[in-house]
Amino acid sequence: MKKFIQYLTDIIEGAWSLLVGMSITMRYFFKKPVTVLYPKERIPIKRFKGPIAFVVDEKTGDHKCISCNACIKVCPSRCMSLESGKSAVDGKRVLTDFKVNYILCSLCSLCIDVCPTDALKHADAEYDMVATEQEELIMDLLKPFEDRGTPLTKIPVLAPGQQRGQTPLAPNSDPGTGTS
Amino acid sequence: MTLGPFWQEVVKIVLWGTFAVLFVSVNALFLVWMERRVSAKIQLRRGPIHVGPQGLLQTIADAVKLISKELVFPSQVDKLVYYVAPLLVFAPVLSAFIILPLGPGIILRDLNIGFLLIFSLTNISFIGIFIAGWSSNNKYALLGSMRAVAQNISYEIPLLLSTMGVVMIAGSMKMTEIVTAQSGLWFVLTQPLAFLIFFCASLAEANRAPFDIPEAESELVAGFHTEYSGMRFALFFLGEYTAIFISSAIAATLFLGGWHGPFLESLPAVAGPFWLILKTYALVFVVMWVRWTFPRLRSDQLMAFAWKILIPFALLNVLSTALVLSLCK
Q: Per-block average pLDDT, block size 10, for chain B (329 residues)?
């Protein structure tokens, strides 16, 4: 008799466990899939060290660089270059060119740490960068902002030796010498 | 031009057979897609989505690949038997379309032994499975086929016993009469235990997980069809998925009211097939749901489940149904 009760309780418990299992898989059935359709969808990966890029200011849509040269000085592989000019409006320093030579960059993050305005970051969604030419890897960080025509890139810049009040040149007329 | 009754029958059989073969192929392609999508959903994946709308054409692409593949002929196989085995597995499951009542009057042959004939005919496919394993000259194939036969013989008993309650209430083995008897209350409500037993046993009969030890991938490579390739393998695959569909369709007819549905009763020619196929696919979904939930049973657990649990409870169900029926008279 004891064995018979054991037999029945085993069956009931077994059936219950089956139901629990099936309810779990049904719950998963209605969850969102975790798959990322990679070439079509991209997700930023936190803590991934992508190529150096400018942080985009959420309010102005502009970069935050003040041309202080701190990153250039700290860079151990000397892969960064920066050029600035004087604004024809108020005489402040204006960034005219910022290039990173990704061939030399060792992704040490020192430039990001040293930046006083937190203007630099690792691009966290660019994890499939491919280039066939060395020129492609010399990255112009200012170009996306110039293409969009953000306020900071439109400020007219004085030519070397020119004084404020004289006829200003076209914005960012000095293309810079690039990196070496 | 009028045909004689003999030729009318011939035309009917040819049309029905063509329909059955077409339906089986399309249905198998759809079921493979459905299985992959259901398993993907359960495992938080997406499954095939690139080929065609929602990946529906993926299985067609797979079928084209299988057809164009070389038919490898392993050395030292028993040639005749090796050729015949896939046909023996696939052909009997087609026979179920003889008695499947799609709607009132839409049935090829309303035999008075009904589903009993189908269960006997589909057992021929186990001979096919066994000789496929035997003729392949491969130890995994042989082991898989021996397991398949042992399993199918054991589960045939609860499968048929569980249908006895339904037959006793309906008073007939004819498929149409069983469906008519369910016009009020479906048998799944009066015979819930029988339905569960039938469902478990038909899972085992179709070699589906968790009863898929004949083709246990982790132990036996691919079981009885290890040595088959190309279209011969596709025939086994087709037979397996059709068997799932057929056993679900028979379960829907016996327990879930067949062609009866809550509405659309005014159009029996449309509503009948619609409700039956809807119920069948719902059951097929449950079969897939079960497969992707439970791990595979061990061989001895499988036998214990059949002989120690399913058969006693099926007998109990038969006895109690008989008792209630004789008391109500």
A: 77 83 87 89 86 84 85 80 84 81 75 82 84 84 85 87 86 81 79 88 83 75 78 83 88 83 70 83 90 85 87 90 85
Handedness of CA B105, B108, B110, B113 (dihedral sign): negative
CA distance A40 to chain B (A): 12
Per CB-CB distance under 8 Å, the chain B contacts of A41 are: none
Whether B222 is covered by a domain: the verdict is yes
Token match 């970051």: residue?
A121
Domain residues for the domain of B160 are 69-328
Q: Is residue B36 part of a domain?
A: no
Least CA distance to A32: which residue of chain B?
B44
Handedness of CA B179, B185, B191, B195 (dihedral sign): positive
Burial of B123 (0-12, 13-18, 19+ CB in 10 A): middle
| B274–A contact, CB cutoff 8 A | no
User: Nearest 5 degrees, angle CA B264-CA B266-CA B268?
Assistant: 80
Residue B140 lies in a domain: yes
User: Which residues of chain B have a CB within 8 Å of the CB of A21?
Assistant: 293-294
Sequence-separated (6 or more) residues with CB below 8 Å from residue B237: B28, B32
DSSP output for A155-177: S-EEPTTPPBTBPP-STT-----
Q: Which residues of chain B does A31 touch, with a Cβ-Cβ cutoff of 8 Å?
A: 44
Q: Which residue of A11, A22, A37 is in closest CB contact with B289?
A: A22
Q: Does residue A37 belong to the interface with chain B, where contact is any CB pair within 8 Å?
A: yes
DSSP characters over B61-96: HHHHHHHTS-----TT--HHHHHHHHHHHHHHHHGG
Please identify among residues 24-83 of chain B the ones whose CB lies closer than 8 Å to any CB of chain A.
Answer: 38, 40-46
B46 neighbourhood in chain A, CB within 8 Å? 33, 35, 37
A150 pLDDT above the threshold of 80? no
| Position with higher pLDDT, B222 vs A135 | A135
Rounded CA separation B55/B59 (Å): 8
Is the per-residue pLDDT at A176 higher than 70? no
Mean pLDDT to the nearest integer, A46-61:
82
The total number of structural domains in chain B stands at 1
A151: exposed, middle or buried (Cβ count in 10 Å: 0-12, 13-18, 19+): exposed
Q: Which residue from A7, A18, A29 is facing B41, i.e. has the nearest CB? A: A29
For residue A170, pLDDT over 60 is answered with: no
pLDDT of residue A20: 92
Residue B103: left if φ>0, alpha if ψ -120 to 50, beta else—which one?
Answer: beta
CA B42 to chain centre: 23
Asked if residue B52 is part of any domain, the answer here is no
